[in-house]
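Appendix B. One record, verbatim.
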Amino acid sequence: MMEALRADGSLPKQDPEIEEGALTQSLYQTLYEVARGAIVEQFEAHAKALLTDSDPSVRRAFLGSVSSLCVFFGSTKASDVILSHLNTYLNDRDWMLKCKFFETIVGVATYIGSAGFEEFILPLMVQALTDPEEFVVERVLRSFSAIAQLGLFQRSNTWELLDVVARFTMHPNIWVREAAAEFISSATRFLSTADCHGIVIPLIHIYFKVIPSDLTE
């Protein structure tokens, strides 16, 4: 409560030598900062241990808490403690770990915002579309769809992704084809009719026998 009041600017600035009760107020503020600092330090140690555990199943289970921990640590510390380790997961041989990573990355993208996501994470996701495991490719496309539905892609990146993903509508795996169709639909949710017919349709029409009348899934 003391921290919330201070952040809101509601706490009066008091001089301990003049006003009564100021010493108690200062004590409570100090106690909060010390206690929170100790908790953050403990969480950081445990988080790093779990993030770098040698067992892929441990790291996979930990990914479910990543979004909440980003909020807990704050943007700066979250980047140092969590995000710096997550990128290494894509080099792991465990395909289930990579699938879980792409499930988690939607919440992380929401937290770090469009600019940070497109600079640090999006290139890795595009690269993962070449993964030999089809489950991983399908999960990447699903994550693209979820992020597109949140409106986090810039228009220029939307065109590039549509150009890349549209070819997966011809993939032998029906799950991959359906995920690609879902992304095309999700990516056009916030676009005007002119953009859909003037830019999107020309990008995807070569993969269809019949041009779609609309871009719903």
